[in-house]
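The following record pairs a protein chain with its ligand, AOF.
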Amino acid sequence: MPTAEDYMRRCFALARLGAGWVSPNPMVGAVLVHNDRILGEGWHQRYGEAHAEVNAVSNVAPADRPLLRQATLYCSLEPCAHYGKTPPCVDLILREGIPEVVIANTDPNPLVAGKSIARLRAAGIRVCTSVLEAEGRYLNRAFFTHIQQRRPHVVLKWAQSADGFLGRTGERTPITSPLTQRLTHRWRTEADAILVGTRTALIDNPRLDNRLYFGPAPLRIALDFEGKLPLSACLLDDSVPTWILGPERLGNWQNTRFWPLPPREANGRRWWVSFLLEKLREAEKGILLVEGGADVLRQFIELDCWDEIRLLQSPHYLYAGVEAPRVPMGAVLREAYRVGDDTVRVWTRAEATP
Ligand code: AOF
Ligand code: ZN
């Protein structure tokens, strides 16, 4: 017989289907079970649209609807209690008469934060919390950062050779295999914005798109403090939403937004990082993927402004070139796996581990 943990894992699998579509909202999955039969399942599919619980209830066949009065709702996140872009899920649970609710994580959103659990219990509903809590926390780490730090979740990503180089100096250097590139395009799809520094924009002339994966394209961001990027650069093709941190360039821009910045001296060291994070927060961007180069990555590390590091390592040697940054002391290794001949490792901050 499946356990509560088994059903919760199913909720997580459903929740993950929302990756790339729901940020800065959490990924949430819900399963309705009666006598070990799944009556309905659902997940939060798109930002601003129906929550997981609503989709799970609508997924129940009309003939099974009365069984909800004896069913258990498994939900990866505490159901909401507030009117946001959608009405409270707690009202739905009460209306359908669902007598039991099993949750992985309480919602850190101050509008919810335990209030729903209290309301459900007050209405006589059995509520079981903290089922696979750590897994749920890891799944929704970007949402926790967004709510608790009030800024986007910062993911630093780089690919390095077996001997720790990002590439040959001054030239675009492929490091990982085409198979691994699919994974990095998936990461781009699941992020809301991608950032590169001036030198990477000049040397690699990247498109920063997600053409090798499926889903929404992220906002492209490049640093160009001195307006050195040639108008022929892919990042200045105005094809998709793009932010350039630097002086406005002449042109009839539709998708490109320039952020001329105040003089450095007035704002102290690395002033632009907090400026950018603030603008991203205002634009409701929940995940920032920092793709390099070495300088930009190091600035985030030195400021201790990162939530996650994703490192791709190839088995090949370069012997010389631009040195890769070092993973900071205290980072906690959370994932390690192979994609073809490359190795993928993911670290988070120690304090993000429940
Ligand atoms: C749930 N189930 O599937 C999700 C929840 O603007 P709204 O109405 O979409 O509300 C967004 C907030 O609702 C979000 O910040 C988080 O607290 C919660 N997300 N809650 O019951 C869901 N996605
Ligand atoms: Zn809800």
